[in-house]
Design a protein that fits this description.
Helix content: over 70%
Radius of gyration: 24 Å
Shape: elongated
Order of helices and strands: HHHHHHHHHHH
CATH architecture of the largest domain: Orthogonal Bundle
Number of domains: 2
Distance between the termini: 83 Å
CATH class of the largest domain: Mainly Alpha
CATH topology of the largest domain: Tetracycline Repressor, domain 2
Number of helices: 11
């Protein structure tokens, strides 16, 4: 038969170890400013490299050279190339989905959609590297971000599609397939980031962002007006 005092010793020991671990966790040093700066420097350099070469074509040596740091220094902050890539993608998802989350079901439908289109155009010019990073990942079959598609992107797109569908059913916008409407918005806005070199060559003397918005506003207004 187990002695009560032994059970008590065991319980106290477990509690003490748990408290010690909690204190150790609380005492984990936060990254210094230099560490934070170096980490941001690596991510910015990696964004350049990945957006130009894709995941398969990028190397840690290229990232180190772009960041102006040694390869061992890169590996001090990250577990490897994939760790850096996933960190960038995870940070990108919230930024990329923010404009869709801002669509107001109670707002004026056509203006809500046009505001979404305009923000997507703005983001294509503000975040061209991020757009190409995302496009390259999807072209490879989304091996590192596929889970986000199921857990985050699909529920948000389905929710937005139901809002658009309800607007159409109530006669507030013209009948439209909501999913394909969203696909067309992505295609007609992100093109300016993903094919930036081509666009700049074909229309070198234009204010491309302003002209893109003029064109797309007219396109979607005609398509959706009732």
């Amino acid at each position: 038969m187990e002695r009560p005092d032994l059970r008590l010793d065991w319980a106290i020991g477990n509690k003490t170890r748990a408290m010690t671990k909690s204190l150790q966790d609380d005492e984990t040093p936060r990254p210094s400013r230099i560490q934070q700066r170096n980490r941001a420097r690596i991510l910015d350099a990696a964004l350049d490299v990945f957006s130009q070469h894709g995941f398969r074509g990028a190397t840690l040596d290229q990232i180190a050279e772009q960041a102006g740091l040694s390869k061992p220094n890169i590996l001090y902050y990250f577990g490897g190339k994939e760790d850096i890539h996933v960190t960038l993608l995870n940070g990108l998802m919230d930024t990329w989905l923010a404009p869709m989350r801002e669509i107001d079901p109670q707002g004026e439908p056509l203006e809500e959609i046009l505001r979404y289109v305009r923000r997507k155009i703005e983001m294509s010019f503000e975040y061209p590297r991020e757009s190409r990073l995302f496009a390259n990942e999807v072209l490879q079959g989304a091996p590192r971000i596929g889970a986000h598609f199921e857990s985050t992107l699909k529920p948000l797109v389905d929710k937005t599609a139901r809002v658009i569908e309800a607007w159409a059913e109530h006669g507030k916008i013209a009948p439209v397939d909501p999913h394909h409407l969203l696909f067309s918005v992505w295609a007609t806005t992100q093109h300016y980031a993903d094919f930036e070199a081509q666009v700049r060559t074909l229309v070198p003397d234009q204010d491309v962002q302003a002209q893109a918005w003029v064109f797309l506003e007219a396109l979607y207004r005609r398509m959706l007006s009732v």
